[in-house]
Design goal:
- The structure holds two protein chains of two kinds.
- Chain A is an alpha+beta fold.
- Helices cover 23% and strands 39% of the residues of chain A.
- Chain A has a single domain, classed as Roll (Nuclear Transport Factor 2, Chain: A).
- Chain A has a six-stranded mixed β-sheet.
- The longest helix of chain A is centred in the first third of the chain and has 16 residues.
- The relative contact order of chain A is 0.21.
- In chain B, strand 23 and strand 24 form a beta hairpin.
- Classes of the chains: A alpha+beta, B alpha+beta.
Chain lengths: 170, 436
């Protein structure tokens, strides 16, 4: 098959990878800069953020998760991150995210763009640096020039490991 | 232990304070390993975690590798996860199903009750080697016992039986089991695992501490002093602060009863949740309990009069965010904690989903509640490095502490009685030579 016939055979893409990458970099930057309220607006009304507590956890309902937030809980979490008396954020950690190996997968539902990416988060607080790595799956809904997040799932390499306190979403 | 050691230990634990060495000295941690964790009954797991013959889970129990496994005859065993030949860990998976366990090194094979059943090239062992010696198997911990599905083990061959050890604290186990209309608990909802750089006692001392919530957990309350809504169906979150623009803690915390028992166990009364729970799933659940017990008893079951039960030294049961919490001390200044949701048999799925959701909010490593406590534990450990002021003060409520006719200790609300009660047991175990 020639390149030209391959192009003709491919279905109309909902998004090109450059737009998806641009969106994921924006999301990472908002979290790095602790712009949590702006980050929250990236989600759809029914958007979920899920960090399972083991790598092959089938769903967020039958077993506990490190994070499993709907909009209401995300907002409660962000309110707490802004509270003047949140001791575990005094001082707040500094974060740096690296998003890489972005690829578009078969959509998990009609009308969504499913993207996977490799994520590394470096966190520093009071003389101590931590490293987190994981595979992220985003279900994105096209929205203007960009997207909204319907589902974000972060499977940490050490999802079933033991953690010191975590505060900022990955 | 020499008499001088005993005298020193007794001097470090006083009626209203304890010395920082109990949290910092690796030598004292080693004494705790031998005399406290080495003799008390320690919670291992719930039988529902290993329902079928051959089901197993491995875990670290106070620094030692063990397997929690159901044998083909249905009996539950707690084995040292160690090959009787050269000592390698035999079962290297977190959980699974096995007909037998085989060591990776020389292929020695063990039944799921720990017996050595296979030795490759057997003839190479002469007649004077007794391969039926139980110490060549995966050895069972000296004592294993279950209280209604909650399995405990002890590293000590001698001591009181499990029910005597638990004493009046069995009531809270019964209360949790009663939450299920068919009296079955399912500890199958995964586990939260968190750790902190601090001594294990910071965690156990926190569990009946009603003095700390307003301050430690300030970030979880709004201006009205009320916490976020924790449980689906609750009318509102618990009242932590005084509210009404007054500031300060909710005075009703002083009314919460505390009870301390022998061997360091204690519980605190229920948190000030208010308003009725509702919703279709909850109404269905309530109806199922009422069908079995009648409406009055159903309401009593649904509203346990206690919040956290401490089974000293490593277990806590909680009624509000239904869970089993296991404290696993790793070193004098490092502690791991495992938190298992308690799911109920015979209830609408939605009720168990609510249990999972609630526990994510309160006890995940990223939860809104537990993270505040972890920060306090870490800061205590650092603060104790300061020389010259070497005591931690547990004097609160000492003047109101009472010994009741039934032998339990009582205290009101924000009293530090539960901690003093733990230290009465601690000194008995560690310095007293009193059998568990």
């Amino acid at each position: 098959m020639t390149a030209a016939t391959a192009r003709r055979a491919a279905p109309e893409p909902l998004a090109d990878i450059a737009r998806v990458e641009r969106f994921l970099y924006l999301e990472a930057r908002l979290l790095d800069e602790r712009r949590f309220e702006d980050w929250e607006t990236l989600f759809t009304e029914d958007g979920t953020y899920w960090v399972p507590a083991r790598p092959d956890q089938p769903d967020p309902w039958s077993e506990v998760s490190i994070f499993h937030d709907d909009r209401a809980l995300r907002r409660t979490r962000i309110e707490r991150l802004r509270h003047p008396d949140i001791h575990v954020e005094d001082p707040p950690p500094r974060n740096l995210r690296l998003v890489s190996n972005v690829r578009l997968d078969d959509p998990s539902a009609p009308g969504v763009v499913t993207a996977t990416s490799s994520l590394v988060v470096i966190e520093y607080r009071q003389g101590r640096q931590r490293l987190f790595g994981g595979l992220v799956t985003h279900d994105l809904v096209p929205h203007g020039d960009a997207f909204l997040i319907r589902r974000k799932k972060v499977v940490l390499l050490d999802a079933d490991g033991t953690f010191e306190a975590l505060t900022v979403p990955f | 232990m020499t008499a001088a050691d005993t005298t020193r230990l007794r001097d470090l634990v006083r009626p209203d304070r304890v010395h920082r060495d109990l949290y910092r000295d690796p030598g004292i941690f080693e004494l705790e390993r031998q005399h406290l964790f080495g003799r008390a009954w320690l919670f291992v797991g719930h039988e529902s975690q290993i329902p079928q013959p051959g089901d197993f889970e491995t875990l670290n129990l106070i620094g030692q590798p063990v397997v929690f496994v159901r044998h083909k005859d249905g009996a539950v065993h707690v084995l040292f996860n160690r090959c009787g030949h050269r000592g390698a860990v035999v079962c290297n998976q977190d959980k699974g199903q096995a007909k037998s366990f085989r060591c990776c090194y020389h292929g020695w094979t063990f039944a799921t009750d720990g017996r050595l059943v296979g030795v490759p090239l057997r003839k190479g062992y002469g007649e004077d080697v007794d391969l039926t010696d139980p110490s060549l198997g995966m050895v069972q911990l000296p004592r294993v016992a279950s209280y209604r599905g909650f399995v405990f083990a002890s590293f000590a061959a001698d001591g009181v039986d499990l029910e005597t050890f638990l004493g009046p604290a069995t009531r809270q186990f019964d209360d949790l089991i009663a939450l299920s209309p068919d009296e079955t608990l399912k500890v199958t909802g995964g586990v939260h695992r968190y750790e902190f750089r601090g001594n294990w006692k910071h965690q156990i001392e926190n569990l009946n501490d009603m003095y700390h919530p307003f301050f430690s957990h300030a970030s979880t309350t709004g201006k009205d002093g009320r916490q976020f809504q924790r449980r689906a169906g609750d009318a509102e979150g618990p009242q932590i602060g005084a509210g009404g623009g007054g500031g300060g803690p909710n005075a009703t915390f002083e009314q919460i009863p505390l009870r301390g028992f022998d061997r360091g166990h204690s519980y605190c009364g229920a948190m000030p949740f208010s308003g009725d729970r509702g919703g279709a799933a909850f109404d269905d659940y309530r109806a199922r309990l009422a069908a079995r017990h009648g409406p009055e008893r159903a309401e009593q079951i649904l509203n346990p009069d206690w919040h956290n039960l401490i089974v000293y030294p490593t277990l806590c049961l909680q009624s509000a965010a239904q869970h089993i919490r296991v404290i696993n001390p790793i070193a004098v200044d490092r502690t791991e904690v495992r938190v298992y949701p308690i799911l109920l048999g015979g209830v609408p799925d939605e009720i168990n989903r609510q249990v999972v959701r609630h526990l994510n909010l309160t006890h995940s490593a990223a939860s809104l509640i537990q993270t505040d406590d972890l920060e306090a534990f870490r800061r205590i450990q650092v603060g104790l490095d300061a020389d010259g002021f070497e005591w931690l003060v547990y004097a609160r409520g000492l003047d109101q502490e009472r010994r009741e006719a039934d032998g339990s200790w009582s205290g009101i609300g924000t009293s530090e009685m539960p901690v003093r009660n733990q230290y009465r047991a601690w000194i008995d175990y560690v310095a007293g030579g009193v059998a568990a």
